[in-house]
Amino acid sequence: MTFSDDKPTMIEFKDVHKYYGDYHALRGINGTIKAGEFFSLLGPSGCGKTTLLRTIAGFEGISSGAVLIDSKSMEGVPANERPTNMVFQSYAIFPHMSVAENVGFGLRKDPRSKAEKARAVEEALEMVGLKGYGGRAAHALSGGQRQRVALARALILKPKVLLLDEPLSALDKKMREHMQVELIKLQRQVGITFILVTHDQEEALVMSDRIAVMFDGEIAQLADPETLYRRPMSKKVADFIGTMNFVPATVLSEAGGQVEVEAKGLGRVMLDATIQPPIKGESPVVGLRPETLTLLYDDQKATERETEGVVDEVIYFGDMTYYDVYLGGTDVEVRLSMRNVPGRPILDVGSKVRVAWSPSALVLFR
Amino acid sequence: MKSPSLRIYAIAYLVFLYAPIILLPLFAFNDSKVVQFPLKGVTLEWFRQMAGDAQLGIAVKNSLIIALSSSILSTTLGIFAARASTRFRFPAKGALMGLIMLPMVLPEIIVAMSLLIVLLAIGVKLSLFTIILGHVLVCTPFATAILTSAFQSLDKSLEEAAYDLGETPLSTFRLIILPLVLPGIISAFLICFTISIDEFIVSNFLGSGEAILSVYIFGQFRFPAKVPSMLALGTILVLISICLLTIAEYFRRRGIAKTGGKDTGGFL
Amino acid sequence: MQNNGLLARIRRSEGASGLAIISPTAFYAILLLAAPLVTVMLFSVLTSENGHIVWDFSLSNYETVFTHPVYRAIMLRSLMVSMLVTLATVLLAYPLAYYISFNVPAHRKSMWLFLVTLPFWTSYIIRVSLWRVILGYNGVIDSALMDLGLVGEPLNILSNGVMSIVITLAHAYAPFAILPIFVSLEKVDRALLEAGQDLGETRLRTFWRVTLPLSMPGVIAAVLIVFIPTVGDYVTPELIGGGKVPMIANMIESQLLKQRDQALGSALSVTVMAIVAVVSIIFLTLNRRFLGGQK
Q1: B107/C133 CB distance under 8 A
Q2: Which of A15, A253, A350, C105 is most buried by a 10 A CB count?
Q3: What confidence score (pLDDT) does residue A5 get?
Q4: Mean pLDDT of A148-171
């Protein structure tokens, strides 16, 4: 799942700042996006992800710093001259034109003959699964079809970078999941760099080669989905992506790349200090994802460590059951998830349980 | 809440509202020199008299010149104002827009008189041209209001999309914005035309005595003998206004449908 | 270099583009509206001599406007007539707006609104003139009533100048009052009314305690929209009142064009503007109070 580092750089941000009057929207963005990468800008609304996307497109100027596309500075290059095309959140389908006219809009100044352009339009429509829709009126299309037209319209110009501004947010859940897969396939097929803006962490995890998580105009972490999920660099990132249990802890000693921690309810544990997030001066906690905790049944033995607990809440989800468990006679509660397999009973509130866990899954935030 | 009394009231109100308009054709075809009941019989005499009125012909021609020029000018000025106010933030925006819209909330006599004072002071001769100047002032706020709602219902990302696909700001305006606000432009033009034809105060004070339709009608109603032929004229004018208004409303709705917006009510 | 960059930035900035685009319209309004209004204000504190303006500052024009019995009387009458017209128009319009908003089915509403606004777009001059024919001695109403044997002799409503003016203007400005009230009634959350009745209120009390207060912004807008143009109405007093019941507008015309006293005419104009401004501010403040009180 990791993305090969030998690909050339397509986009580079060099200390990008953006002010709207007094409001500091982008606060020193640095980072690179590789050619052919499916890259996501993920964050809550107002974090600056759309602004950053629009600085690439050229709709937003920057206050200082530089945006480079294919090693060329984009300063002073207007949106209509940049090698990028965009799929808008509202799709921005021109309502007074047919589907074919929409898709072929960007070819107006193309020197090719009419017939060749028509063929290009037909090919683009076929690529997004809308073969034969060219003659339809654009305003009569469904949401999913509009989305495809917007994609075809942008891709027909063979841009170096395709920018997607929350393209799936207007679709219902089923359609959204379907389009996620289609977009991944499409990206592999055309090999163009895709940059996706989304506030949906699941969507970002599913689709992206790499993700930049943004908070308050800054990139909090830039990594591949697995690293982001397993080794979040801050509590905020950990909390935004998936669920994480936080257990209060005390750092006992640190030497030789190892750090010894006393976690409440879990006991003493040695952690690899080199893979832990940088120290920020917060009161230390260790984080565990729910699926890294397992309930032990009958005479099952933990492979690494185990802790006793009491079930406080049971949430049944069909294929899964979530348990909220008090750890080892403390008031520390963690959530863990168990797959429901035949022959495994759902436990009752108040049941005494044993919880297995692995020190390597712990993340130390301090 | 169903109450028959409210319904009766509503119908009575409509009768009050439409009474003068219904009386127009009634007495325009009535074979009597005096406007009173009972009706006497049908005649086309008053339409004939109206058609033979040379002075009225001149008035109609002058009014058409004024209405055409001032509606073209005010619609153009309205496009600039509406575009600027819906898409840009700029210094003194509130003050400038307030000034442009001011004639809507200022008694018309003030608009006319203050303009007259200045025109007289700097020695401009009154003519059809000065009437047009005044009409543009009166019509522009209406055009701006209609066009602002047309420009507002335009999704900003449509422009950005065209720009993103390689068009310049100017060609984007021509290819995307103009076709989409065209219904608004037509309806603004028709409304301005109607207002200008009907306008009395500016036409009366900023003209130099040329026959203007509204001023001419105003004058003729003082002579009882002329009233029936004025009613005939009124019948025709009402028919024309209703046609123009229906066309304007059609275009306004089509514009909203085109840009995929929701209808938020009629004019005003 | 520095200069160059700055210039380029201004040219590219949003503010400059906006100003550039609005400039034709703004320029027109400044030249033909703002400048004349400023001139009128200036003239109002100067002196007229034989139809010319003399650079002699004085407030005597305003003194005349406020103390001279004729001007005072006309000013007060104008105000009174406008207020009567406003009151009549808004009171008559409210039940209709209520009917359209609450009793007319949704798909018929726009047809009703169209019906209500249509008369407004037919010639104002003709509508006003028609009332003269309708209300006049032996006119449409008189002859119809006598024909039906309801009255023995002509009522000649037209001879009652103020009443005729009120009827005519209430007719002319009806849509201006109906539309804003309708819009505010449409915004009233229907669930609130059901809640009111659910809590045991009668319909009338629900109307008094919920609907009416919530529709006040529309009523206030209607008051302003009707009051402002009627204060400055010229045609109706001239045609209906037969010039016997002059209002401010007629007086301004007479001062400026007939007496050629531009200074006094200007002072009258400025006074009208001031009245309009004061009334607007009062009602807008009221409106804000209403909105504030609801929060």
Answers
A1: no
A2: A15
A3: 62
A4: 92
